[in-house]
Specification:
It is a single chain. The protein has 137 residues and is an alpha+beta fold. The protein has one domain (6-102, 109-136). It has helices at residues 6-30, 99-136; strands at 46-52, 62-69, 76-79, 91-94. The strands form two sheets. A two-stranded antiparallel ribbon has the order 1-2.
Length: 137
């Protein structure tokens, strides 16, 4: 990514990671009310692992190192005897996902996404200025 357009390449890696983070958080929020039977695993929140790219290869920036599930399959047991998935005691299982935490993560990922786009925009403006200077020389 080094070279003339290195800043654009690095900014694009940040855009990609933050987009995937937003996708994961959106999926978690979407499934916050997913109901399961008590003998099934609850929906597990997904989290994105971001890591620095290998600087030894000449590639700079950040990349998605993977995604992990919360591991909390027990969920929250809720008494809803009228629910079609309720067990004989009237319980169903909801995911153990905190909406406040997910909304905070969504705001952080959006801000990171916006910051990466701002870097790309500023780099583009700098490149355009350099080209304009070259034309006038």
């Amino acid at each position: 990514m080094a070279g003339l357009f290195g800043a654009l390449g690095i900014a694009s890696t940040g855009v990609n990671v933050h987009r995937k983070w937003m996708d994961a958080v959106s999926d978690n929020i979407t499934n916050i009310n997913t109901v399961k039977r008590t003998d099934e695993d609850a929906f597990q929140a997904r989290y994105i692992i971001a890591q620095a790219a290998d600087y030894g290869t000449g590639f700079n920036g950040v990349q998605v190192g993977g995604a992990v599930l919360s591991g909390r399959t027990e969920g929250r047991m809720v008494y809803e005897p009228d629910h079609p998935l309720a067990d004989e005691e009237g319980y169903v299982k909801y995911p153990d996902i905190d909406l406040g935490s997910q909304m905070t993560q969504l705001m952080m990922s959006q801000r990171g996404y916006q910051a990466s786009l701002a870097v790309a925009d500023r780099a583009k403006s700098g490149y355009e200025s350099a080209i304009a200077l070259g034309r006038n020389a």
